[in-house]
Structures are given as structure tokens and as C-alpha cells.
Prior knowledge:
The complex is a heterodimer. Chain A is of the alpha+beta class. In chain A, 51% of the residues lie in helices and 17% in strands. Chain A has helices at 2-13, 15-51, 78-87, 127-133, 155-173, 215-218, 269-272, 280-287, 303-317, 328-331, 333-371, 373-381, 386-417, 419-430, 437-440, 451-478, 481-486; strands spanning 56-60, 68-69, 74-75, 94-111, 114-125, 209-213, 219-223, 229-233, 240-246, 253-260, 275-279, 295-300, 323-327. Chain B has a single domain (29-56, 73-238), classed as 3-Layer(aba) Sandwich (Rossmann fold), CATH 3.40.50.300. The radius of gyration of chain B is 18 Å and the shape is globular.
Amino acid sequence: xxxxxxxxxxxxxxxxxxxxxxxxxxxxxxxxxxxxxxxxxxxxxxxxxxxxxxxxxxxxxxxxxxxxxxxxxxxxxxxxxxxxxxxxxxxxxxxxxxxxxxxxxxxxxxxxxxxxxxxxxxxxxxxxxxxxxxxxxxxxxxxxxxxxxxxxxxxxxxxxxxxxxxxxxxxxxxxxxxxxxxxxxxxxxxxxxxxxxxxxxxxxxxxxxxxxxxxxxxxxxxxxxxxxxxxxxxxxxxxxxxxxxxxxxxxxxxxxxxxxxxxxxxxxxxxxxxxxxxxxxxxxxxxxxxxxxxxxxxxxxxxxxxxxxxxxxxxxxxxxxxxxxxxxxxxxxxxxxxxxxxxxxxxxxxxxxxxxxxxxxxxxxxxxxxxxxxxxxxxxxxxxxxxxxxxxxxxxxxxxxxxxxxxxxxxxxxxxxxxxxxxxxxxxxxxxxxxxxxxxxxxxxxxxxxxxxxxxxxxxxxxxxxxxxxxxxxxxxxxxxxxxxxxx
Amino acid sequence: xxxxxxxxxxxxxxxxxxxxxxxxxxxxxxxxxxxxxxxxxxxxxxxxxxxxxxxxxxxxxxxxxxxxxxxxxxxxxxxxxxxxxxxxxxxxxxxxxxxxxxxxxxxxxxxxxxxxxxxxxxxxxxxxxxxxxxxxxxxxxxxxxxxxxxxxxxxxxxxxxxxxxxxxxxxxxxxxxxxxxxxxxxxxxxxxxxxxxxxxxxxxxxxxxxxxxxxxxxxxxxxxxxxxxxxxxxxxxxxxx
Lengths: 488, 241
């Protein structure tokens, strides 16, 4: 009974104990906040890495599309490939499947009298099919979350296109006396690609097609005179772009004109500044690879359960060296591993903070034991055992650790919950943005509190407090009662 | 009741050896109020520590009711100090974090586990209150030691020493830190307890004035008993201090 009583009384009356509690509290709070933020970044990054990738991607490096099937003696059409996969044992575990074409390209568009040219990753998709496998419509700005997104233009976009067209015609009419301008890389952005008459592909349908560029491709960010990040649209819905890529068979340059229909905003700069989606049928026509594709994207009914089975089954169906089949995690493997390794190392380093708190407990406990020499002598003269005296100081350490952990957990969770409010306050106070949105493309600092992590941090911190109180407790227990009573 | 046979004790300070007790023999009878006097360094306090099992002799033996106690296992010695012996120190030695009441209860706290304490706490609390009233501190239960005078602290220490009904009270200069009047009060209190509760008391003192209150005076010189005088039982109201 006396051990509990003295632990509690020492805790209530020793201001030095308060320092120990604050040390443990700050260590635990820091660990919880940093872990929550790291986990938030990690989770958000993983979501986004998975976001634009379907569960399983089957693709080929061949520019003309998948290799010919030995059975058919010709390349399979996307419909034939899908039918073959869905007829296999893997079919019943697949929720959605869609073909795509992915190829590098150059995007050009006029902006403030200049032609802007950017390298991009051009992806031809069936918008409804791509939305079904996930990671597409939830990132569209105008058609956010739509189950049936399209490349169609809104009436406003069409009106802007007409206005642009008239503007160019007026400029040409007033420019009679001017010397002939140098030939621009794109003569007329609205011109249709010349038909590949040699290959007998025929004249493409006279229709303007929509394009969905990445948000960063279509916008410029800059800082104004106040240092605030400003954003300006370089491409608005209805504006025309020209996309140049290579043909599917002979690798000759081909190009097409498209009108901006929507934006893709994943908040992943890599995707937002390079991805450009166009209708797959139009890309097939431009590249002369009619009824072929370079990738098939699959969404599984239960990813964790079926990923291995479906991957192996498709590998069995398409055992060609130039066809790769991989889950989204395998494709992003190095990056995901790097995130986990970073988090592990950071945790290890941060746990040293609690280690420092442990050393402060050791120092303060040594002082407290020295102060309590006479009390130890009194207790032993009243019949307290050496083990009992040791238990007092061990229990005291545990109590300090537990109280420090409790307060640290409360503080850590409060900071995590209000981290954006705190960041705003500190930014206002210091005048320096602690979390520049233009770097991370996150609207706010992402956090994710893992209860198991909080428990582990608490257990670790209490254990450290107990371990560091062992030595002073042992010294107290070993103290000779007569020497303790005579201690001045 | 309590018998020391041929006790020797030497302290080692670096290379220097200080022989404090050199074959001391002493027998204390049940219900006796015995005072031990002698010059500083004569081994009075060491004798008290050995009798109360706070320390162990280098040679010799100590018997309580015929049972040797100086070589008992630590657990049994702890139990003896808790149940059989009561200590009173010159500097009171109350725990500063606890109230007077909790200080007095400390031997009972030590004797019981937490569940055991909750079962018997009513009895112990009543005993502590009774003792504190008896020593004149019934109104100071919730006061901390720093809020008490020297005499009050020593009276609280006496109450603590008596809580578990010890058979032997070992008092190490209980008046050494008090003025003459307050010291006299403490000795009168001890004499009263000795008579009323039959507690055997061994009191070490420098103060030759207060030995008149005791039944027997043992003088120590050079680590042995040099004189052992039995006194006629004093009349309480005539105790001169």
C-alpha cells in the first residue's frame, strides 16, 4: 500500500517530476504528430499512385500494340482480348476491364501570341470504360465522380471555340500589309490531320474531338507582388490544342487537333503536368492502329484476395516476353518501398526523442533518490523491504511515463486534428508559408492517425520510462538504512 | 527479553577502521525503561541499530525471547522492525510529503498489501487517531510535518512508533533536538506509555537530566558497558528534566 501512496504523493509534490512528465509528453506528442503526418502523406500518395492506375495493368512496349496471337495469326482486337480474359477462370473475379493506348506525344497550343510546346504522356481511353476501372472520373474537374464521363464539350466551351475562331479570322483580315509570318509549327489548330492516303485509311470524320489535359499542363502558377501563389488558366474549355505523336506502325509523325473538354486534377504533379486523355478511337485513327491497343486495365472485385490469381492467369493467357502484367503496387514498387523505409527510419530517429526523455528521467530520478536518502532509511526502519523501496521508484517511473504518455497522446492528437489551423496561425505569425501548397499540390496537410501506432508509441515510451528508472530504483533499494538515516 | 551477547562492530572508512563495539553484553527485561548514556562515539546508537536489526554485528549475537534475530533473513528482519520494534529518532524522521495522520499510519501501510489495507483500514485509522489524541495531536491530523513544531513532530514520531503495538521501543536521543521543556514532555510521554502499555523502552541519550525518568541506566565506554545502575521507580509527577 505504501508504494502506491508514496508514488502518488511524490508525483503530486515533486516539481522535478513535472519536468519528466513534460519530457515524455513532448516526445510522445511529437512521435504521434510526425507519424500521423507521415502516414497522411504516405496514404494520400499511395491513393494517388493507385488512383490513375487500375488494379492490374497489362501492357506492351510495342508502339503498334500487343503482338500477334499465335492462334489467330494476327494481333487480337481489344474486344477479342477482353473476351478471352473474361472467359478464363480470372473472368469472374474481374469487375471491370478496358483497353487503352499509352504513348509519348507533344502538346502545342497558342498562349499570349506564342506557341507553347510541352512533352506529354498521351492516353487514349473509352471514358466510360476507364471510369469503370477507377482512377479517372474522380479526378476530373468538371465531370467529377461521373460514372459516364465524356469528351463532349459544354455549350460554353463550344461558344469559346467559335469566338476563338472568329478572332483568328479577324486578326488575319487586319494583317494584310504585314510581312508573311514565319510558318508556325501548327498551321491551323483546327485543321484535321491529313488523311494517310498511302495506307488507304480514308478521310477522318469531320468532327472536333475533346481532350482532357492534366490540370498543371493547362494552368500556370506564379507568385504575385504579395508573394501569394496565383493561378491562371492557359487552356480554357473550348481552347484548341494540337497533339503530335508517332504512328502506330511506321513511327512517322502524326498529329491531331482537339478541344479542351475538362481537366484531370489528381494533385500528383507528375500526372497533372504530363497526362493528356483523348478518345481511344480517335487516337487509333491518328496513329493508324485501328482496333489495336497498347494496354488493358483491369479492376478486381477483391484486390487483396485475387491480385495474385488474376495476374498469374493472364500471364498464362499471354506468355509473351514483350507483354507485361503487373499489379499497381508492383509498378510503383520502388516508390512504395521508399515511403515505408523513410517512415521506418524517421520513426527510429524520432524515438530518440523519447530516449532523451528517458535520460532526463534517469538524471531527475537520481536527484530524487539522493534527496530521498533519509526517507528510504525511515521506510526501512519501519520495516519496508529493499524490494518495496525499489518498487516505489520503479512505480514512480512508470507513473511518470504513464501520465506523460497520456498527456502526450492527448496533445499529439489535438495537434494532429488542428494541424492546418496551427500551420495557418504560424504562417500568419512568421510570414513564411510552412506548407507551401504549390510544392505539394495538397490543399491541406494530410494526416492519418493509426491507433496501433499510437499504442506502440505509448508502450515504448512507458517502457523507456520504466527502464531508465531502474538504475536509480536499484540504488535506492541497495541503500543501507543506517547510512540513509545518518545522511545529511 | 532482549539480550546482546559479546557484540562487536567495526566501521571501515577508507583505510581507517573504527571499532565501535568491543564484546558488549546487555540484557533488557520485559517492561523495562532503560537509558543508555555515554560520550559521543561510545557506540550507543550503534547498539540501538544492532538491537533493532537495522544493522548486523561483526560478531556476537542478539536474542529476542531466546530466539536469535541478528542472522535472520532480510524478510524476517523487515517484519521484526515493522511489528516488534518501534523507532524514535532525534530528528523525528517524518516523511515530509505525508500528513501527520499518514505518517503515523505508515507502519500499517508497510505491513499490508493494497487489498489487505482496504480490508483492515478502519481498525488502523482508529488506532492512529487514538494514538495521536493520546500524544496531544488530535487536532493536527491533516497537517504536514513542516507545519508542526519540533515537539509536535516528535510526538507524532512516538505515535508512529507505537501504531503496531511494538514490544520494544528504541529511542535514539529523542530529546536531543528539543528544548528542555519539550524534551521533558516527550520523556514523560514515554514513561506513561511504558507504564500504561507495558512497552519495553531502550533510550539512548546524552542528557543526564532525563535519565532520572528511567528504571535503569547503562553507561557505555569504549564500546562496552562500563556501568549498569538500576534506579528505584520514579514517581511520575516528580520526574525532573
